[in-house]
Design goal:
Purple Acid Phosphatase, chain A, domain 2, about 25% strand, binds fe (ii) ion, 6-stranded mixed beta sheet, 5-stranded mixed beta sheet, about 260 residues, alpha/beta
Amino acid sequence: MLNSPEVEFMKIAQFSDTHMLVPGADHSAALLRADWLRETVADINGQRPDAVIFTGDTTQTGHPEEYAVLFEILATLNAPLYVIPGNRDDKDALRRGCGDREHLWQSDQYFHYVIEDLDVRLIGIDSTDHGERMGVFCSERQIWLDAVLREGRDRPTLLFIHHPPFDVDDHYVGGYRRADEAVALTDIIGRNSQVKGLLCGHVHCPVNREWNGTRAVVTPSIAVDLRKGVDENDAKEQPIYMLHEMSGAAELTSQLRVVGAKM
Ligand SMILES: [Fe+2]
């Protein structure tokens, strides 16, 4: 299956921006955000995905106690988890908390990696630098992504990254520290038709649209108190994540899932 453009069937859950807090700092928000993540993990387990992608901002400040709460809850997830950092993460703490997972050590310098052993090739991209709120995609990362995509032109591929390299209404405009870095990412993706989707977080609101010859998806924040662009009458203050499916000719379909909704 690995060298075929056909994909048997693959279901991937994506969630983002949990912004875990230390209990006591803002007690009610800390408890709520932990509950929202717990409910999300239970709901994802019920969906039985083949893989789970977590597109960053796992904690609010990168404090070790925030990571302790986070990883205690993530330990109940039944599917393989692939996480990348957001601008609020401490990358070393995130790596350590993920435990002994080989793919996290493909690069010492960047929190990026390629997953080769699934029907769909997964590439996690690091768009963060310490102390930088905006997206970063420096020349070294550009060279790396260009090279790994060249190695797998015949493999249906999903990319995931915290910062979208495109604007999202007036919520998010010019989100990279240098416009040419967002353009470079866009150009690399545009040259690789095997990229079936770019999955993002950061903006806290939903996006699912054709973009640059592929699909661009942003999943809302699991932290309901930080969420934007969702009709709260429909969501009823429940967390929301994204369910992706790929099959046949490997086209990506993605839909929002409200945690606790009937199947
Ligand atoms: Fe965030």
